[in-house]
Amino acid sequence: MEKILDRFLRYVSIDTQSCEESETQPSTEKQFNLLRVLLSDLKAMGVEADLDEFGYVMGRIPANVQGNIPKLGFIAHVDTSPDASGADIKPQIIDNYDGGDIALKGVDGLFLKPSEFPELLDHKGETLVTTDGTTLLGADDKAGVAEIMDAVQYVVSHPEFKHGEIRIAFTPDEEIGRGVAKFDVKKFDADYGYTMDGGEVGELEFENFNAAAASVHIQGRNVHPGYAKGKMLNAIRIGMEFNGLLPADQKPEYTEGYEGFFHLINFNGTVEEADFSYIIRDHDMAKYEQKKEFIKECARVINERYGEGVASVEVKHQYYNMRKQVEPHYHIVEKAIKAMEMEGIKPKVQPIRGGTDGANLSFMGLPCPNIFAGGLNFHGKMEFVSLQSMEKAAKVILNLLSLFASEAV
Questions:
Q1: Starting at the edge strand that comes first in sequence, how are the strands of the sheet with 273-282 ordered?
Q2: Would residue 79 show up in a list of annotated catalytic residues for this protein?
Q3: How high is the pLDDT of residue 409?
Q4: Residue 339: C-alpha distances to residues 143, 188, 197, 335, 402 (Å)
Q5: pLDDT per residue as tens digits for the range 274-330
Q6: Three-state SS string across 321-365, please?
Q7: What is the pLDDT of residue 325?
Q8: Of 79, 141, 150, 173, which one is the catalytic site residue?
Q9: Nearest-CA neighbor of 401 among 171, 62, 6, 43?
Q10: Which of 28, 185, 238, 383 has the smallest count of CB within 10 Å of its CB?
Q11: DSSP 114
Q12: Is 122 designated active site?
């Protein structure tokens, strides 16, 4: 019987960073290193499971009670964000956290501070796992992976625990928006799903951003600066001008709740040519479409100023808001609320200011709300997770299974 903390630490030790530039599925071969471990772990527990060529581990546990019980699927992704290194992670374990600053010992003078991250104080007295300041931690979403596996371990080792049919899935490439691009919903064979991919304890989401990615190319003209008057087109500067056309108040650092944004995530350029990468997000479909059109209009403005073809924009849709797919099955949200309340958790039903595999799965015919996994400050060196939060998430999974089984007819 492996403890959830030991399992989590074992999983985060494996580098599974995804790569947006890659065109393979999964985007990085190293994701298979963890996927194969998960396949082996499931089989060692007696769970029927397989791993396909696209990087999907699927497991199946038969029901042990009779009746018309919905088949429940629990899903988490194995990849970590390209925003920070996921290699050679050195977790720090803080027992009985006292509410003070936490030194991230891999970088001199770097601290995880409640003055900057006040949510730390919600976890006084708990066991925290942090980074050492040189990498991300990988709680997004290896906390979710560990929680699902912990619940599976409980189910298979307690035959008296009553449940319907259970489906398990671990996916690659969620962080780059391609997590379920080749996911076989029919093979998975679940009636409803839950992704374990949220943040703080109590979070429950069934609506998310509509999402697109925009690639902006600026074609400049390089001329020796001593003779550049009236001739040079500096692609870097023009790109900055392009960026300045976007609404100043619609950036992630100025928005919250249902407010959408344009987010510049990458730049590479010279005087001759420059490339800017953006993500576009909004919960409201009409505003989402307006944002996509607006960034194209910015290119038209630049071309009017500097000449046709100087600026070009390619916008690619990533995923839609899953609310309209989940809301007709709202009882699965209500079940999750009750499952949390059974653990003394106050549910926080809120929109996801991001995306999840559940969004695309919901549009593929598998209604799939998102449940907290317990991690915070994802995608960077300030990431941390509470052991007690992970334990609560695993209990919520078991409570969901019990609630559905108790209504068997």
A1: 261-269, 273-282, 210-219, 311-319
A2: yes
A3: 57
A4: 19, 23, 16, 6, 9
A5: 999 999 999 999 999 999 999 999 999 999 999 999 999 999 998 889 999 999 999
A6: CCHHHHHHHCHHHHHHHHHHHCCCCCCEECCECCCCHHHHHHHCC
A7: 94
A8: 79
A9: 62
A10: 185
A11: T
A12: no
